């Protein structure tokens, strides 16, 4: 079949292009992420059985600083960019020159946003698990991949599923603009699993094995190729063509397509047009390897220090017993000198420990571990100091967060497109879109903690402006205070600082309260004027009476 030959040829080409990256990824996984050090797809027995990968690599690790650092970095990236306990993005009009959203549009965006978060964090979608694994892969290898699949017949609560795809299974390709739009994923499943998924579309060989109890667990190497429809004749009318192929049987299982690229690729620091990027471990891999060697030598030196090798007389019948308290007759000569001595006398494990600690600190800096201690190390700092420290953390992690948001924005675009095709925005739906949003693209604006940290200079500027206005007022100049707009100050503070919106009154409530207050002030002034008028009339009457009495 010609199309299968073309696909397998393209697979070989992509594998060749990706080979240097995969060699680097295997190297990193050995020292940093043994749990994700996935084997070649040819090692299918262990892969299918699900045996722990770390069991084969951890015994080779003598220092676990990098392993623990990646766990910490992953947790930090999630907590700063997409914490599950809060809303980490809003929705808006994609067109930057479009008019500001009216109240109806704002309510639509908020309703859709809230639905997306409820849908993602429904355990049945798999988003929490898949996104964490993809971000961990991104932190360790520089690239993480997540597959977002449209589900049919699952209801509005689970319209999509999210699955992490191990980095070594992917063979990515990018277009002229550097946008990843191709993936030839190679993975394995058992014969029975293939038939469960595709039924009679599988090859006769796989169907036969699936029906044989002795062969049903035979592994089948599969290819899922997704590429722009321009590269192959497309019959689905969609933007991307999809093929499932049994590699060994050279059998085309299914041909379909996607309107959007279903593989969400998360990069760390992408400085080239290629489909992969390097992560923080890439710059530190030499330090990690040297740390392993030093730790191994320290371990050996400590063993030699505690239990050194010995030199003794050549007497097979009088071997020493080195057990605590054991007697060793015949080990002294006539002058009382030992006939057994340690060979190595200059061990100094302490010196090795100092070198190792220095390397560990360097590695922690490279993998941002020390950065998470900025606020923890000084919990008694002032609010201004905490603001400055947050800004520093935001500046250091800002570029990484922006790279992550590129992939997350692609994910949101696919989610909204899928919902649109399912009729979620049609009239009568709970997510019915306003008429003004007809055919209008929806964009995303990120509001996670890291985004707020990047805006900390604005809060610092507001704080300094208020402080200066107060100083001027102390010397009798109220011009600074008069220029400050309290409403705008509170709006900016709430937007940047992330204070809950429900602690603020609505604009209508604020306006109504101010009108009531103005009426009360006007009434009070009127009463005071009446009192002043009455006092003046009384004083005038008393004055006239005094004049009259004096004249009499």
Globular, elongated, flat, extended or rod-shaped: what is the shape? Answer: flat
Provide mean pLDDT, rounded.
Answer: 82
* Helix/strand/pairing category: alpha+beta
Describe the main β-sheet briefly. 5 strands, antiparallel
Task: Give me the count of strands.
Answer: 12
Strand content: 5-15%
- Total helices: the number is 17
Q: Biggest sheet: strands side by side, in what order?
A: 4-5-6-7-8
Query: What is the CA–CA distance across the termini?
Result: 134 Å
Q: Any idea what the radius of gyration is?
A: 36 Å
Elements, N to C (H/E): HHHHEHHEEEEHHEEEEHEEHHHEHHHHH
Helix content: 40-55%
The unreliable regions are 38-49
List keywords for this structure.
13% strand; 552 residues; 5-stranded antiparallel beta sheet; alpha+beta; 3-stranded antiparallel beta sheet; 51% helix
Give a written overview of the molecule.
Helix content is 51%, strand content 13%. It is built from 17 helices and 12 strands. The model is unreliable at 38-49 (pLDDT under 50).
């Amino acid at each position: 079949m010609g199309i299968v030959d073309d696909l397998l040829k393209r697979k070989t080409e992509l594998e060749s292009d990706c080979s240097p990256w995969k060699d680097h990824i295997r190297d990193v996984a050995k020292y940093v992420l043994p749990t994700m050090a996935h084997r070649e797809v040819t090692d299918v027995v262990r892969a299918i059985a699900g045996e722990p990968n770390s069991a084969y690599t951890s015994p080779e690790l003598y220092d676990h600083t990098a392993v623990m650092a990646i766990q910490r970095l992953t947790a930090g990236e999630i907590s700063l960019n997409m914490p599950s306990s809060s809303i980490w993005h809003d929705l808006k009009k994609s067109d930057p020159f479009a008019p500001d959203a009216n109240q109806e549009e704002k309510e639509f965006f908020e309703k859709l946003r809230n639905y997306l978060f409820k849908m993602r964090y429904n355990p049945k979608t798999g988003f929490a698990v898949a996104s964490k694994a993809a971000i961990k892969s991104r932190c360790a290898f520089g690239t993480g991949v997540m597959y977002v699949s449209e589900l049919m017949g699952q209801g509005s609560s689970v319209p999509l599923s999210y699955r992490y795809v191990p980095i070594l299974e992917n063979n990515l390709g990018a277009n002229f603009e550097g946008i990843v739009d191709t993936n030839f994923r190679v993975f394995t499943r058992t014969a029975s699993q293939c038939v469960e998924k595709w039924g009679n579309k599988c090859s006769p060989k796989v169907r036969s094995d699936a029906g044989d109890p002795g062969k049903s667990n035979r592994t089948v190497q599969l290819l899922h190729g997704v590429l722009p429809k321009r590269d192959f004749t497309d019959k689905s009318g969609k933007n991307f063509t999809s093929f499932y192929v049994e590699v060994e049987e050279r059998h085309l299982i299914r041909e379909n397509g996607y309107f959007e690229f279903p593989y969400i690729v998360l990069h760390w620091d992408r400085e080239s047009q290629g489909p992969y990027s390097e992560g923080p471990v890439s710059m530190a891999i030499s330090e990690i390897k040297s740390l392993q060697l030093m730790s191994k030598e320290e371990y050996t030196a400590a063993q030699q220090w505690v239990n050194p090798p010995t030199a003794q007389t050549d007497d097979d019948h009088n071997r020493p017993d080195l057990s605590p308290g054991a007697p060793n007759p015949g080990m002294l000569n006539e002058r009382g000198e030992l006939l057994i001595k340690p060979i190595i006398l200059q061990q100094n494990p302490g010196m090795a420990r100092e070198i190792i600690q220095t390397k560990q600190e360097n590695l922690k800096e490279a993998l941002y571990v020390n950065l998470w201690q900025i606020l923890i190390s000084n919990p008694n700092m002032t609010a201004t100091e905490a603001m400055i420290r947050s800004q520093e953390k935001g500046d250091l992690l800002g570029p990484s967060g922006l790279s992550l948001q590129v992939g997350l924005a692609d994910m949101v675009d696919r989610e909204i497109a899928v919902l649109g095709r399912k009729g979620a925005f049609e009239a009568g739906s709970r997510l019915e879109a306003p008429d003004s949003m007809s055919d209008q693209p929806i964009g995303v604006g990120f509001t996670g903690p890291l985004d707020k940290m990047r805006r900390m200079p604005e809060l610092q500027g507001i704080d300094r402006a208020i402080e200066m206005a107060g100083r001027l007022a102390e010397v009798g100049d109220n011009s600074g205070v008069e220029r400050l707009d309290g409403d705008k100050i509170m709006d900016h503070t709430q937007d940047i600082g992330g204070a809950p919106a429900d602690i603020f009154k609505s604009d209508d409530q604020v306006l109504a309260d101010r009108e009531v207050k103005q009426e009360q002030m006007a009434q009070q002034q009127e009463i005071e004027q009446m009192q002043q008028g009455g006092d003046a009339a009384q004083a005038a009457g008393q004055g006239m009476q005094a004049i009259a009495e004096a004249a009499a």
